């Protein structure tokens, strides 16, 4: 099972490390290895959240996620995206941007750093919306009940997540835009942050809205099909949801790719603290992205999220922390180790809470239904 799921990741790791040695010797080998670990540590929460979405998709679309999706993740976000950012921010052509990335690493890093406020605002707002929509939803199973119960009540207010996100974005643009109070160019920086953040918010609403719409339609169609099969199976009446499945799966796949893109922002930016070499960066982050993809599928196939019900909560709190960190980095530098550790600690905490819950349920009633809110057990917080 492990080899089947992680086989491609192992193969890509071997090829990537060999390529690194051929390109720059053992120094490059070490850089690629460090970047791989950095990407995995920063994106573990990404795998947990992805698994919650991927488990709703068919085996075919899970395979697409591992094949086409990984090409988008590795070549799109870890190689092409940094070059596109430089091309846009410096008003360069694609060929010029590639030449700059390969032949003038210092200037390339400088341009990417200049573009960081817009990148962080876009990614921060997208991830913030994911977090807010999660904590404002009323769920049967609650992890931090003392916090989630009142927030679920507040969540009944329409568009509350978007309103709070816009308030946070306005605060960020006014007070966290780089040196906003020191020079006349502050208005431009604030405007850039504001526009990029709104773009991130719109992207979430459009992609997430379409995904949710088709997912709801799919569930309705499946319910009608089940009822039709039960009531009129003898007459051969069936309701086909084939076309709708395709649309629902496509938009959920699109949502996953945008989600992965937002998660990768911190990894791409953080990689510049380790190397300016775009090739080594792509190798290291690409290897890490492969493991995140494989881990996502592994969590789905093992049913880990069903067994450890607080994992998804921990991952979403890690998303909220990452969103806050991205917005803070518009003005202040935050060490990547801190970013990675926050996510790991939150997920480890939620995992341990899940283990304690399972043990308590087994002790209280061996056959208790873990999805029944009547069997909800406190996580100890």
Automatic annotation (TrEMBL):
Segments forming a coiled coil: 211-238
Give the top-rank taxon of the lineage listed in the UniProt record for this protein: Bacteria
Keyword Transmembrane tagged: yes
Keyword Transmembrane listed? The answer is yes
Span-the-membrane segments of this chain are 6-35, 64-95, 115-136, 157-180, 192-214, 239-256, 268-292, 313-331, 337-355
Please name the InterPro entries in this protein's record. DUF475
Tell me one Pfam family matched here. Answer: DUF475
Query: Which key words tag this protein in UniProt?
Result: Coiled coil, Membrane, Transmembrane, Transmembrane helix
Spell out the protein name for this chain: DUF475 domain-containing protein
- The protein's organism comes out as Streptomyces ortus
Q: What is the lineage of its organism?
A: Bacteria, Bacillati, Actinomycetota, Actinomycetes, Kitasatosporales
């Amino acid at each position: 099972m492990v080899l089947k799921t992680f086989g491609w990741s192992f193969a890509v790791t071997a090829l990537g490390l060999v390529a690194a040695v051929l390109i720059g010797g053992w120094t490059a080998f070490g850089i690629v290895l460090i970047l791989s670990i950095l990407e995995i540590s920063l994106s573990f929460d990404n795998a947990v959240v992805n698994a919650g979405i991927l488990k709703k998709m068919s085996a075919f679309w899970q395979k697409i996620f591992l094949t086409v999706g990984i090409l988008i993740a590795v070549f799109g976000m870890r190689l092409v995206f940094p070059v596109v950012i430089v091309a846009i921010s410096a008003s360069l052509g694609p060929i010029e941007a590639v030449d700059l990335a390969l032949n003038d690493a210092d200037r390339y890093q400088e341009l990417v750093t200049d573009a960081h406020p817009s990148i962080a605002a876009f990614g921060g707002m997208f991830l913030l919306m994911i977090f807010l929509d999660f904590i404002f939803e009323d769920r049967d199973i609650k992890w931090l009940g003392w916090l989630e119960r009142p927030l679920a009540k507040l969540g009944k207010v329409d568009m509350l997540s978007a309103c709070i996100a816009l308030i946070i974005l306005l605060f960020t643009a006014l007070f966290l835009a780089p040196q906003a109070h020191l020079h006349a160019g502050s208005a431009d920086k604030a405007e850039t942050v504001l526009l990029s953040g709104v773009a991130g918010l719109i992207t979430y609403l459009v992609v997430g809205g379409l995904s949710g719409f088709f997912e709801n339609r799919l569930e309705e169609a499946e319910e009608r099909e089940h009822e039709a099969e039960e009531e009129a199976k003898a007459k051969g009446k069936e309701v086909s949801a084939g076309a709708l499945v395709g649309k629902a799966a496509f938009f959920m796949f699109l949502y996953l790719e945008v989600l992965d893109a937002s998660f990768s922002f911190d990894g791409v930016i953080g990689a510049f603290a380790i190397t300016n070499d775009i090739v080594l960066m792509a190798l290291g982050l690409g290897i890490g992205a492969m493991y995140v993809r494989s881990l996502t599928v592994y969590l789905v196939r093992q049913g880990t999220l069903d067994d450890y019900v607080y994992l998804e909560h921990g991952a979403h709190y890690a998303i909220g922390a990452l969103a806050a960190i991205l917005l803070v980095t518009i003005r202040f530098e935050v060490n990547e180790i801190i970013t990675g550790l926050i996510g790991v600690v939150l997920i480890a905490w939620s995992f341990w809470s899940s283990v304690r819950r399972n043990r308590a349920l087994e002790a209280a009633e061996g056959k208790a239904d873990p999805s029944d809110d009547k069997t909800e057990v406190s996580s100890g917080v």
